[in-house]
Each structure stands twice: as structure tokens, then as C-alpha cells.
Write a structure and sequence with these properties.
Distance between the termini: 18 Å
Largest sheet: 6 strands, parallel
Strand order of the largest sheet: 4-3-1-2-9-10
Strand content: 15-25%
Number of strands: 10
Low-confidence stretches: none
Radius of gyration: 18 Å
Shape: globular
Number of helices: 13
Mean pLDDT: 94
Order of helices and strands: EHEHEHHEHEHHEHHEHEHHEHE
Structural class: alpha/beta
């Protein structure tokens, strides 16, 4: 257990297996620009979506440990797969030993909480990675909160590669965007609300909208996660007062710095300075 004599004060940590968490970071910074942030992308080992629960847990715990070492009192798992496969174990089993005064939060519960007021038909769709779909984490969270809602999920295994290879605006992407949406709506034609359950997917939102019936509401996570974090900090002043407020943002990657800079510009529309690290 870490030394708890002096409370840790530092930036809010944002972790993702790759680049998609940058869409979460962007929305959080828009709503909470005063805080400092430290983004860590495990880009060398992405994607997490096809990995086992045990491997995702191991990798995510390594990232949380690193962000704790670097002074983060609060870490957001801005990754659906990590939130689905590792968050609960880290909260329940590891935090008491790492540092019970710090917190680790995910992106699935805030998204699930937002669904209730949005759907009229009470039929909700989920498009996500294979790992997130198999975990059934959205199903469990939504059933706890809104037992009257029917959730239907469909995995989209090729969407993340399309995005990370900068092919998401190409005509070739149309086939796979249409394919997965049609598969989902064939399973449940009554869907009126559609969760984009991967932080990469906002980059595809123009094409997703193009191939989705206009009456279906699209739910991208960033805005809801940002609102949830703002509320969380308001309700937990003991955590909020430990988050530094100089409006700075730093970036770390387990890949090469050049590769991160190139790909991050797709998500943030700006160049960033990044430092390469190793997780173990």
C-alpha cells in the first residue's frame, strides 16, 4: 500500500488502449478546462477489444499503477473494453491495496445512465467492439438502472481499424458501416436509440448517421462522460480538491512518439507533444 500520510495532488488521468479515448478527453476538457490532465495511450498493445478478460485486466492495472505513480488522484478508463473487463476488479480488489483514497472510474455506467430519458420505444441498440459486446457490461448496467429497456448489441470488428488507418471517410468504409447497422436493426427494428459503445466511433458519426434511420437518436459517449465527471467532482470535494487546476494537458504513449502524434491529430485536429513510456 502507498504512503497515505500526505494526500496525492495532481492531474486527472485519462487512460485508453489506443486513440479513441482522445474523443473523451476532448469533451471533458471542453466542460472542465480548468483541470490538468495526463493522457496515457497503450498504443503499442492496442486493440484490447479482442483480448481476454485476464489480459485486459493485467494491462489496465499496469496503466492505472503508472498514472498513480505519476501523481493522478483520479483515473478515468476512457476505454469501453477496459471499463467492461477490468474496472470492477480494480475498484474492488486493487484500490484498497494501491491507495484507497484514489478513484478509478469508467465510461460504461455514465453512458448507461443517460439512456433512460432518451428512448421512447424502450428498445436500445449498442454498436461496440467484440470484447465489449461479449462482456455484456452495457446489458448489466442498463438492466440495473432501467429494467424495462431491451438492449440489442452488434459487434463492429472492422470499424476501429478503418479509423486508425485513416480510412473512415473513404467510400470503402461505407460498406462496413452500413453492414453492421443493418445487422443490428434486423435483430430489433424497434430500436430508437443507438449507443456508440466505442470511443473511436465519433469519428465515424457522419457515416453512421448517413446509414441510420433519421428517427434513431445516436448516443456518443464523450458528452455524457464529461457531464458525469463534472457531477462526480461536485459530489466528491475530497477528490476534486486534489485535482490540480492549471489547465495543462500532457500525453504519454507506449508506441513511438511520431506514430502517436500522427494518429492523435486525427482525433484532436491539432499537434500534441507526447512522451513514450513502458508499462510493466
Amino acid at each position: 500500500m502507498m504512503n497515505l500520510m500526505y494526500p496525492i495532488i495532481g492531474p486527472i488521468g485519462i487512460f485508453d488502449s489506443g486513440y479513441g479515448g482522445l474523443t473523451i478527453l476532448e469533451k471533458i476538457r471542453q466542460q472542465l478546462p480548468q483541470y490538468d490532465y495526463l493522457y496515457l495511450g497503450d498504443n503499442a498493445r492496442t486493440p484490447y477489444g479482442t483480448r481476454s478478460f485476464e489480459v485486459v485486466y493485467e494491462f489496465t492495472l499496469q496503466a492505472v499503477r503508472k498514472l498513480f505513480e505519476l501523481g493522478c488522484p483520479l483515473v478515468i478508463l476512457a476505454c469501453n473494453t477496459a471499463s467492461a473487463k477490468a474496472l470492477r476488479s480494480i475498484q474492488q480488489n486493487d484500490l484498497p491495496y494501491l491507495d484507497p483514497t484514489r478513484r478509478v472510474l469508467g465510461v460504461i455506467r455514465p453512458t448507461a445512465e443517460s439512456i433512460g430519458p432518451l428512448t421512447v420505444s424502450r428498445h436500445v441498440g449498442l454498436l461496440a467492439t467484440e470484447g465489449t459486446v461479449r462482456s455484456q457490461s452495457y446489458l448489466m448496467e442498463i438492466q440495473k438502472l432501467y429494467p424495462d429497456i431491451t438492449l440489442t448489441a452488434n459487434a463492429c470488428p472492422l470499424w476501429v481499424p478503418l479509423i486508425e488507418n485513416n480510412e473512415f471517410e473513404s467510400e470503402g468504409a461505407d460498406f462496413f458501416v452500413r453492414k453492421y447497422i443493418n445487422q443490428l436493426l434486423e435483430k430489433d427494428p424497434q430500436i430508437d436509440t443507438l449507443i456508440l459503445g466505442c470511443t473511436h466511433y465519433p469519428l465515424l458519426i457522419r457515416k453512421i448517421r448517413q446509414f441510420t434511420p433519421p428517427h434513431i437518436r445516436l448516443v456518443a459517449q464523450g458528452e455524457y462522460v464529461a457531464c458525469s465527471l463534472k457531477d462526480y467532482l461536485h459530489r466528491h470535494p475530497e477528490i476534486e480538491e486534489r485535482c490540480t487546476t492549471q489547465g495543462k494537458c500532457q500525453f504519454l504513449t507506449t508506441e513511438s512518439e511520431e506514430k502517436f502524434q500522427e494518429s492523435a491529430s486525427l482525433f484532436l485536429h491539432q499537434q500534441v507533444k507526447v512522451r513514450s513510456i513502458t508499462l510493466e
